[in-house]
Amino acid sequence: MALVSGAGGVGEPREQRGMHTAFDLSFAHTEGRWARPGSWVGASFPDVRIYQEIARTAERAGVDLLFFGDGSGIPDTWRGSMDAAVEWGIQWPRHDMSPVVTSMAAVTEHIGFGLTYSSTFQHPFTVARLLNSLDHVSRGRIAFNVVASARGADAANYGFDERMDHDERYDRMAEFMAVCRALWASVPASAIVADRSTGRFADPSQVHPIDHVGRYFSVKGPLASMPSPQGQPVLVQAGNSPKGIATSAEFVELVFGFGGSVEGKRRHRAALDAALVAAGRASAVDTVGILWATQALVGRSAREAAERRDEVAAFWNPEAVGAFLSHNVGFDFSTLPTRFTVGELVAEVQRVNGAQGGFVGSLAASLGASASLSRQELFEHGWQHATGLDHTLCGTAASVADALEADFEATGSRGGYMFASPLAAPSGFGDLAELLVPELRRRGALAPRYAGATLRENLGLEGGDGVAG
């Protein structure tokens, strides 16, 4: 095994572990993907057969996780209207994908499934109960991506007149997750006796209320469910603001990182490690991996890959870009002045309680607060971000694998990659599963293939007992 510096102290050798892989299916049908060559003929979103085919193909390749983000509102921040998003299919339509996950679990045996629910709008008892049930249906293959929602269209659907303050969203998330973890621990596996000779089902001394009374939630408990195969789902979080990282460090087991430059990834990794230590979870520094969001386009030749990349670029027009950026940041970019600094943009996004990471955070990190931009220059950056072409790995399986191996070692060799495809489903993900993943496996770059019975075991995580880490 190669040795890299990292986990213990600075410069101490650590055994390098293989990458884990995931497919991000959140937008496999939006932003023009449904119309591109390679999309299904005779079936389209939300036909479960598409997702079942992707699941089977990904499992044959040994992909660890299929991931679904979520959003419950049609984007309407751009120009204060949802028309552009509706017309061009920008991050809509969106369904609750938990029923789809059950159908995918029924045709697979090993691959895991990540679902997203909002701690800003949902109640922890409902979410804890749902995910417990899904963990049983999938036989221990569920991950929970908890989000703090910044999108105005979502907030309006839950009765909020305005977005919750950025830091308060994470305060609510912290309490939300404390309740969920307590509920999952309220009926431990050891409580189930199931003695057929006496008919005694469970030990009441081990089943207890949680009696939680907090700022946001009041929950008596216990969770009136059987303990799930994993104890609790694998806990995932994607916040990359200082407050988001600090909050997630209390519970997170796997991080969804937004990629970017090697330097940016190193900063994120260092901030996460420091937050884990501050949260009293120093032992988790070496076990909490980051799956870097990575859009990949793989061809059987470099020319084929380049031609398919051009297909992606052709879809996007200014209205589609504006709708995409404004929705995800929570700021109407049509209101920008002719010229401004990046620092002024950041301040304005903060003022409206928009998302301070993602596009705006990456812009600030790469250009600096004092950089001056025109609206046209901003939208050129925005076009790259919306298309994903600013962070797309494009080429043959060998060339993309080369880039991933170098990046993995340079950023700490903990975690792996969450692959999105700008191409149609299922063909884009089919190429990743049939070309890229086998190339990485041939090189010995991947973690062992389905080493255990549950997603938690396959990711090399400790058993879930309601307390992460």
Automatic annotation (TrEMBL):
Alphabetized InterPro entries for the sequence: Diverse_substr_monoxygenases, Luciferase-like_dom, Luciferase-like_sf, NTA_MOA
GO MF, any single term: monooxygenase activity
Regions crossing the membrane: none
Record flagged with keyword GTP-binding: no
Domain Luciferase-like span(s) in chain numbering: 41-413
Keywords: Flavoprotein, FMN, Monooxygenase, Oxidoreductase
Entries under Pfam families matching the protein: Bac_luciferase
Signal peptide: none
NCBIfam families hit by this protein: FMN_nitrolo
Family according to the record: Belongs to the NtaA/SnaA/DszA monooxygenase family.
UniProt protein name: NtaA/DmoA family FMN-dependent monooxygenase
Organism: Herbiconiux moechotypicola
Taxonomy of the source species: Bacteria, Bacillati, Actinomycetota, Actinomycetes, Micrococcales
